[in-house]
Amino acid sequence: MTNAQVQLAFNAPMQVGECPLWDHEAGVLYWVDIDGCAVHRLRPTDQRHNTWSMPSEPGCIALCGASRLLVALRDGLCLLDANSGSMTPLGSVAPYDTSTTRFNDGRSDAAGRLWVGSIYEPRDMPAGTLYRVEHGAIVDQRKPVTVSNGLAFSPDDRTLYHADTRAHRIMAYDFDVVTGSIREGRVLKQFSAERDANYGGRPDGAAVDVEGAYWSAMFDGGRLLRLSPEGEILREVPLPVRCPTMMAFGGPDLRTLFITSARHNRPVDELARHPHSGCLFSLDVEVPGRPEHLYRL
Fold this sequence. Notes:
CATH topology: Neuraminidase
Radius of gyration: 17 Å
Largest sheet: 4 strands, antiparallel
Distance between the termini: 42 Å
CATH superfamily: TolB, C-terminal domain
Oligomer: single chain
Shape: globular
CATH architecture: 6 Propeller
Strand order of the largest sheet: 1-24-23-22
Strand content: over 45%
């Protein structure tokens, strides 16, 4: 490992691990393998692991309570009961052309809505967007992106963060949690897209701690960044993989940062240097996160 603080939490590689979520009541971590078409669950105390196969790519998940998960699949939303393994379609078909687009990265707000973006797979124009999902209804927020990522909320619920990975940009929007409306936005951080020796990656998934700092997984940069609400880099954590994808605060005190990663389509020489690409990692941090909000069915 290149960083003694970063530990291997689960030694089984995903194709594209994403959307880790800590169920605080059950003491388990859920996450998805997008290209592996599966949802995973791990109980860190004894390494008990479960997996559920999905009919298409799961872009993200949201906790619904009682071991139930909302799963945003390529072709629509469904409810997974992790106790029985049953899958129930929620009747909301995907609001896009599923041959070129799928859901990607999401997070629930304090009012129980799911905010989930889409990825336009040709990646040659901003044909993805951001959606608000409320009681099964999917509403386009008209925020054009190519690869939607980095959704998170400030502790006071007044800011919604949203990244376009392809554009190397993280936005911060004024947010009204009561009405679910997004107002004016500003650039929190614009990263260089120059693929030179100093290339530091592009912003993928994210999480916010109790101090309001925004943690960003820098895909193809091999690092995590902790940013202030003004976009200042407060901390950089190097990782033993090139492509971290997202993180979640977990553990009994929410001071363990669980980090997913990817190995799909990565160069052979990179995988030789980073054999744990695609695995789940953990990092102990001083500033805790907050429990994830539940999606209200």
